[in-house]
Amino acid sequence: MKWSQTLIPTLKEEPAEAEVVSHKLMIRAGMIRKLSSGVYSYLPLGFRVLNKVINIIRQEMEKAGAIEVFLPALQPVNFLEKSGRLEVFGEDLIQFKDRNAKKTALGPTHEEVITDLVGNCVTTYKQLPLTLFQIQTKFRDEIRPRCGVLRSKEFLMKDAYSFDTSTSGLNKSYSKMYDAYCRIFDRCQSNYMVVEADSGAMGGDVSHEFMAPCDSGDDLLIVCTECSYKSNIEKASAVQINAPLDGNTEPDKSSFKTPEEVHTPNTSTINDVSSFLNIKPDNIVKTLIYSTSDEVIAVLIRGDYDVNEAKLKGVLGAGELNLADNGTIEKVTGGPVGFCGPVGLKEVKIIADHSIANLMNFATGANKQDYHLINVNIDSDFKVDQFEDIRYVVDGDKCPKCEKELNIIHGIELGHVFKLGTKYTEAFNATYLDSKGKGAPIIMGCYGIGVNRIIASTIENSHDENGIIWPISIAPYHILITALNPSDPDIIKGAQTIYEWLITEGFEVLFDDRDLRPGFKFKDADLIGIPIRITVGKSFKSSGEVEIKLRKDEDKCLVPMNNTVAEVKKLFDAISKV
Fold it and tell me: Whole-number mean pLDDT of the chain?
């Protein structure tokens, strides 16, 4: 392709609305343009990269035995009601009424749709196992779209769904998809790690995320400094600092002091209380009141930690969990928000994090405006119904596997695999008849990849101050030929000849034939980041040699024109190895 015949509107200045490197460079390199908040058009360079990623995904899905389908973007809202996820998506769901007043949504995901389809088509165990996949646009009305294609309202996802008759069958399907994901990200030459994850709104009890470590990533990852332990922060655990007493060890109750009410005006935060009472946050117990669809719960945690609501939902088995409103808090505690405490609570289940199990003489809210209690002790002053791991891991915690230090890093989620079980098949009555003619719900797995995110994460992890540095596998073109003086008939003829040679050999080549200054063209070359660069200029005029270099390296070599193809093949093979 000749540059003069395509659309690559590069920009020299950084776009004002762009926050992260990938967003800036995708706009500057002429890959995307913003239509509206969270909605982007892909231009020729961007679309070529997108298709490279799609082709790799499609090949590996088919290699793993998955069959491609294409599901509607529009779906009935009552499908989400049936699965119990309408409230989960909340205002992120883009929905409307059609002319017949039927509630319809732009699909945020397709679990319900695929389950309904398979439930209507599969009737017997002889049709299983089955794995279906699609590459389709998803829609979510993000409250604050940002970071370009990393968090947008409209995005492309590969989602696959496995259907099995047994847990062992699900395990096999899950393993196939897990391995396929590793091959996909290896072929895309992505920098990634696999971490244990929480299933969240998807349901299920086993899941893993494929994450690209990156400072601009929204996700927090917990990584052990010594062993292989890696987890999303929602799922991560650590060695418990204050594990529950094992029954053989009794607290030294002689050290218990008498609780004392202290006037603490204008101290509704942990830092306020710590400063006012001159005690450390790790000897303060926070009390948070939560409500589910069935009950109200008091949750206790050490003052310097935060409640991990994903873990808490798992402990409670709750589909819905929210901090209680002011009215509920006042009804349960008798006091206002900001001064809740466990002493005196009645008919409320108390769940405490392990971090407070062995604390003594700690401070807590007094359930009274502008008052706290000091010298409070478990069992002596109140009872805990249940101790659980319900806190977020923090930097410096100890690894649950090897007890070495854990670190927190940022990451971009590229893919997520789930063992769903029968959550959706039971809701949609998707059953099969076994060999004895008995009906049973089909067992599902779900496997998603954010196609756009692979592109953005690659740029985040592979760029320099001048622009993008593409890996050869997903680069928009393999080779960029730059004719430095296209008005010179010898130079343009030589560049054109090399271009035709390489095209004949099957390479994807962009030929910069524009009549612009060399400096301008070199800056554009750095910006768009094509891996192999060939320059036809002064050396060609003087000695018949062309300059060849890799975008990622400073080193250049001069090669006789007739050796160009051989040298390019050697470089291509070297950078294609995964």
Answer: 93
